[in-house]
Task: structure prediction
Amino acid sequence: FSSKDLDGSWDDSSAVHVTLADGNITVDGSGASADGSVLTITTAGTYVLTGTLTDGQIVVDASAEDKVQIVLNGADVTCSDSAAVYVKQADKVFLTVADNTANTLACGETFSDEATADEVTGAVFSHDDLTVNGSGSLTVNGNYKHGIVSKDDLVLAGVTLTVNSVSDGLRGKDCVKIASGTYTITAGTDGIQANNDSDTTLGFVYIAGGTYTITAGNDGIQAETLLCVTDGDFTVNTGGGSANASTKTDGGPTGGGQNGGPGGSWGGQTNSGTTAQTSGTPAATTAATVQT
Result:
């Protein structure tokens, strides 16, 4: 984790302040512009968002070298046909949830042709590195497919996050790294997933701490190459719960991928049914406890 990943602060005096309102977004500063209910950020910097869009979008379309921080300071954004927050391009985006605020990001059940052509699949979607941090609370409703998606690295730290998604809850192609926080994830498929299968150094999930309540139709946590947990409290219910569990009762998470393949997972469906983690501590991670 970088120091910026872990530090959910910002300099308010130099930030651009944005007030969200349907058809009337106001921007106090430079680097962002509004067109109806769409805010587009084109320059590196910090942007503090307050207000509501019942059908609008936050777009980041900056240079490939720009780092952008979006501060949700009591923001509620729903986009009916695409991601509520869509990162087209940046070096890295920090989605910071301000302390003592409640925020919501949601998408509709169907996406536009433009969104599907750009392979947008989540209520929060980034083509580049994405960090979600801060000490406030954020609810993400992925009514189309996934909750939060990064096509590169997805990093989370400190936030109180609730994700409800039709498919995966948290999805990072190259990796998912979580330092701390409180996570309640209800997902139709995997709760947390890293899915890069073309590079053996990527496709991993690393969890250094936090509290997790995961209800998933498939795996609670799925890593294509490696799952490493060094600390945390986990309550994971997968594949309909223990009533559908297989006879696997070794008290530990699956050491490799599903059905003996590479990777690692806690809980999930195999060809013979569902493997449910019932108790026990992963090898060499004595601080972590898992239960369903």
Notes: Confidence is low (pLDDT under 50) at residues 246-261, 269-292. The longest strand covers residues 67-79.
